[in-house]
Structure formats: structure tokens, C-alpha cells
Amino acid sequence: MRLIDRQYLETPFYGSRQMTAWLRRQGYAVNRKRVQRLMGLMGLQATVPGPQTSRPHPQNPVYPYLLRELALTNSNLV
């Protein structure tokens, strides 16, 4: 945990994957899940934002859902 904390102060953008690779280069046989758990215990989180996959593009139009008020009781109504 001391090594993880020291390296996090130098490179706060390291997540668990990069931290695991760094520890392995230093000669420690660690698993990524263990590094995730230790970083979670210490409250460390990478400073870079994650992927923004659910944000729509502002130029794309928002179409209304036309079937919201219809009661579809049988098949082949739409």
C-alpha cells in the first residue's frame, strides 16, 4: 500500500491496470483485483475521466416517441 500511495502521488492518472503493470515492473507479483481492492481501501481513483459513451451529440435531434399514448392490445397494430 505504501508503494501504491507513493506512485499515485507521482502519477495520479494511473488506474488499477497501470498501477499493476508498474508494480510488476518493480518485481512484485500482484493481481489487478488486489490492486483495485487496495486502491479502493485507500480511496485512490484515477484523475482522468472515463469514456463518455452515453452522452448524445448536441446536433442530433430528439424524436418524440409516438406510441406512448397508444394501448397496444393486439399484435400487428403498429
Automatic annotation (TrEMBL):
Any Pfam family matching the protein: HTH_21
Domain of life: Bacteria
Location of the HTH-like domain: 1-50
InterPro entries on file: HTH-like_dom (IPR025948)
Annotated protein name in UniProt: IS3 family transposase
Source organism per UniProt: Thiohalorhabdus methylotrophus
